[in-house]
What we know:
The chain has nine helices and 20 strands. It is an alpha/beta fold. It folds into two domains: 342 residues, CATH 3.40.50.200; 118 residues, no CATH class.
Amino acid sequence: MFKSYLRLGKKSIGLGLIALIFSLSFTSGVLAKIPNDPKFPLQSDFYGQIGAPEAWEYTTGTSSVVVAVIDVGVDITHEDLKNNIWKNSKELPGNGIDDDNNGYVDDIHGWNFVENNNDISLSVIKEVDDSGAVNHGTVLAGLIGAQGNNEILGAGLNWDVTIMPVRAIDNAGGGVLANVAKAVDYAVNNGASIISISFVGFVTYPDLTDALYRAYQKGVLPVVAAGNSRNDSSGNENLTKVKQYPVCLDSDSSENWILGVASVDLQDRLSDFADYGSCIDISAPGEKIFSTQKYAPQYGYTKDFDGAWYGTSFSAPLVAGAAALVKSVRPDWKAKELMSALLRSADDVDGLNPGFAGQMGYGRLNVGKAVVLAVESKNIPPITFETKLINQKKSYAMRISANGKVLQDFPLFGYSSKFSKWMLKDDLFVYARFSNNKIIVDVWDLSGNKKLSNFVLPGMTGLSGIEVDTVWGDSPNAILFAKKGKVNQKIIIDIPSKSWKVE
Ligand SMILES: [Ca+2]
Ligand SMILES: [Ca+2]
Ligand SMILES: [Ca+2]
Ligand SMILES: [Ca+2]
């Protein structure tokens, strides 16, 4: 299970140090690439809104990035999707044998956890089925990666990508969380880098929590829709108050391991159906969406591409697709870095949403900027920190350098090699010293701003048990000291208020 302690609004999105040491310049989006697909004009508004044509100047995706769509299934014979569907190369089809020994027999294109078979293409449709649910997975898949620039229908955010369909939702739009947990494990174990999830519920399930956290720890990014309960008079739309899952699974964790997605309209205003609050990390268009649909005219599914679709369901795959585009540029980036790139590059839309400031995550997805950030990051050498204790006539300072460039000298008041300890963590330099039977703490950010001065660490008299971890708010506004030994106690200091609590 994941550890949970304090949650203070927005969390760290990492890469802060890179911005400190190297300045990233976003090139202005004058270049733009437009695909030749005939239905693309129906998609150009929402793709333009997120800077997709600018991203496409640099990358249109790659089949080496696998995105799992855990949903009702995908129409894998669809003419604009079939070339971008995952194929299990280690499995021989139709021989009744689990050739790749992954626990699933003849799983050529994914697995169906609802009927427990290898049919993930919605081949059997019944009259009672909800047509919205039947189309759902195919619409999502088309946004992530309908083949682009092939003169057929529309384009996905990735023109090339590998979509792994995993069926865990039935044709009525419902499902069993235990199946979703197995679907997540399946996606991770079979090579997905990103998981797109467009369903919510009010309950959670330990196996699903564990599976998604395991995914994140293995570098797989879960991208999850917020839900659509605003204006349905249920009063459940504020996720800070009423948790929904899986979008809020990380809400009590100091780590951000679920990328929660809300919906905006074409003017960047929170959609009137979209849930919001502290579980949201980013917003993306979820209105007037056009994409591929399930094509089965014998069952009345006569349109292979249509809209307009509305819902946070469609915002999430745009973010998942954006993560895949970024990964096509930086294949070495895992969940944490992909999330960081998307959040750092998002456009702040708080000003357009009075009353919802901070409730829509870091802003509206800007995949154009995210891809440029990824491209430019390739020119940045990996950061290595060097520290050096400087003794200037009994006055000590710690010099922090990175890649040979001096960042800052931190004066170490009352330094002694035996009774002082310093720690570097995220964007903070923490200095603790033992004096008069007390532990006194000073904290600076790496720009040299003093964040905490002469703070007496409560209940601690020895330096040896001190470790520092950071808990993030809008800035690194809390630090955490873990006290080891017989009592595993944590002291959490909120830097702005200088208050503290013991857990
Ligand atoms: Ca198999
Ligand atoms: Ca087989
Ligand atoms: Ca196409
Ligand atoms: Ca989150």
